[in-house]
Structures are given as C-alpha cells and as structure tokens.
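Lab notebook, bench 4. Still working through the backlog of constructs that have no structural model yet. Next entry is a single chain of 276 residues. Request: give me the structure tokens for it.
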Amino acid sequence: MHNLSRKVRFSIDPFLPEDSSGFNSFSSRPAGEGLSIFFELCVELTGEVEPSTGFITNVIDIDKNVRKYVVPVFAERIRKDFRSGSHIGLPGITELLKSARGQLADKFGTAKLNRIGLALNPFRTITLGGEPRPNTVGRDEDCKMVYLSEKFEFAATHKLWNEQFSKQRNFEVFGKCANPTGHGHNYIVEVTIKTAADRNKLTAIADFEKTVDNELIRVVDHKNLNVDIPYFSEIIPTVENIAAFAWERIAGKFGDSTLHCVTVWETDRTCCSYYG
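Model written out:
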C-alpha cells in the first residue's frame, strides 16, 4: 500500500464575484487579484500502484478535481460569510473540510481518499482523516478525527554523554555531539492535538499556544538541557528523549482535545515523533 500526497494551492478574493483562473499552479490557481486569501489544501490518497503508469493516480487529476469540486465550496462559503461579517473558526473550517472530502471521495478510481488538510499558515495545519488501515481506508470510519498541528521553536544546549561509557566509547557513539562543553540547536517542535470530528471541539488556538508555551517552550528555551532540566539529569537529551519529555509536559492539558503527537527537529534533516 502506498500513500500519495499532493498540495493544491488556490486564492479566493472575497471582494470579487469570481476569481481569475491564472496560469501558475505552483503559486496558486485560481490566482487571486490584489489582496486575496491564499489556501493550500493537502490531499492524501492511499492505494496500489497501477503497473502500466506507475501511478496511484495522476496528480494532474488531483489538481483538476480540487479546483473543479472543492474551490467553489470554499469560494461560496468565504464570500457569503465575509459579506455578512461572520467569522469562520475551527469548527467552520472542519465543516469545509468535510464538504471537500465528500466532493472528492469518489473521484480517484480505486485510490481511496485518506486525509485532507488545510494549511492555515506556514506553521499551522488542520487535518480531517484517520490512521490508514488495510481494507478500511476511505470509509467513513477513517474520517473520525480532526487534527490541529502547529510548530514552535526554542534554542537550547545539550551534551550527549553516558557516564557509564568510557571517554573513548562516548566519542565512538556520539561523535562530535559528545563535546564536553556541549553544543546548541535551534529546535522546532510540532505539536498535534486531535478531537472526534462529530464533536468538533478543538482547543482554541490561543489556549493551545499558551499551554505549549507555558508548559514546554519556556521550560526549555535558552537552557542547558543537561544542567537546567532535572528530567535530563540521568536521561541523555537526545532528540528522541526530548520528544518524550515534551509529551510528558503537555499531555492531558488541552481540555476537550487530546495530544496526538509531538515531533522535534534538531536540524532540518533529523527529527523524531513521539505518540505517548
């Protein structure tokens, strides 16, 4: 089983009766005119590769179906609510994703629509879908959960060193990361919470951010993890253990929402996800 993801970008101008198609799908299509609202919709399909083409489905068809069936749904809702002065919060966005999923569910032949997600900004996404499971992907039960993800950053120093190892062994295992005076990283943490789609009660953005900031970021930011964080007095602060520490700090603190995953990047090439 393969998963194929495609990001489709489009812009909607709430002031105009319709949008110009444009010619640059890498930027957005419809293109938007002047000050417009930019969207990036991620569509994830699951299925088997067709031997004659090497495709699960042609990404051209994903683009075409999103622009034909989903963009009008977003455009109608955006213009209607904008002109009436109505706010579209997380529950409203979830309803839009449900409508989009309904429009796309049967448009990809044997490939099944697994997840559909919307980037609210470059660091925050909301996703509707479920965990892919053989013989169930694409059914209604795979649309049970709504996920909200956001990235945070902190800077910290750590030293990778095991006191039970010899000095030589430490350098063999940890290499330059075993520097006796430590070294630093600009870490990125992505926190994902979830709630049942039928409840649609994701924690408010401000509350979500405040919890992560108070319970995690302020604790570790500009700290020597080995020295300043008691948790790491006997646990080596690898990216794996930092992800587990982050989970322990914030799990159970999001009201009606549940912590789903914490991902920590120590470089743009190295990250670890922890699911509790």
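Notes after review: The chain has two domains: 2-143, 150-274. The chain is about 30% helix and 30% strand. Flag for follow-up if needed.
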